[in-house]
Amino acid sequence: MPSIGEILNINSRAAFEKAALDVFREQAERCEPYRDYLAAAGIAPAEIVHAADIPHMPIELFKSRRVYCGEAEPEIVFTSSTTSGDTPSRHYVEHLENYRRTLRKAFTLFYGEPERWSFYALLPCYLEREGSSLVWMADDLIKSGGGGFFLTEHEELLRRMAVETKPKILLGVSYALLDLAEEYRPKLENTVVMETGGMKGRRREMPKEEMHAVLCEAFGVEKIHSEYGMAELTSQAYSKGDGIFRTPPWMRVSVRDFNDPFEQLPAGQRGGINITDLANLHSCAFIETQDAGVVYPDGSFSVLGRIDRSQTRGCNLLVD
Question: Tell me, which fold does domain 113-228 have in CATH?
Fold first, then answer.
């Protein structure tokens, strides 16, 4: 198994290919839910010789199984947000320092050292529960560069941002950013506005393009940036505008056919998003998500919403 240092230093297709196969062989043997899934699907790990052919495990198994293959007891367990009555996903993280190193390396690749930024996190629905990886991420960035968390203290948030001299990132869940935009329409200077998605049942769903247009006009910024992550991942992808996400070198996104989870689609076609996150060393690095999207020839991708499960067929092995 590669070390986290080796994963974070991947800088070529060849290095990614080798690391992905090494991680796959280890997790196919030691991660019990993934091993069971491969067996139920009739897939022999020894026959997988290219990273593009590695099967992705349905993300639902993070809700029903302990997806973990660390040597020691995990230092923290992150949980997903849920609607009423749902079972949350659980991501067991063996070493928080590895999680921190991954977060900071990915952020630095896209935005530079965290210390040069001041972070203002408008994440009310996440702050109101325990186990949020997004809150942990924001807290670590705030500790690096300053800023703070806010629930609904909009006037204090805007006051603090107005006197800050460093470049600023306003990181917010979608509905909270819209609330701020509609109530105050503040013209933000020297600020990146970064949304993390999600109306969480607080407002009507709207197309990303419409939401971003509303926020750009209210905040006086040219583009809305976005962060794409989830409790089950260690890494994040970032968009600097227009909903086009890019990944760090140790993370790859592909799309699968809605009706056949083992058929990978070519660039430009709409399908289910599969994520390879090699920083998930001690859980499962190969995840079949419930998001729909498109991958472009350069490896960037767009998220087109959630998959309507009633319209899909295919393999539900071990999930139900």
Answer: Rossmann fold (3.40.50)
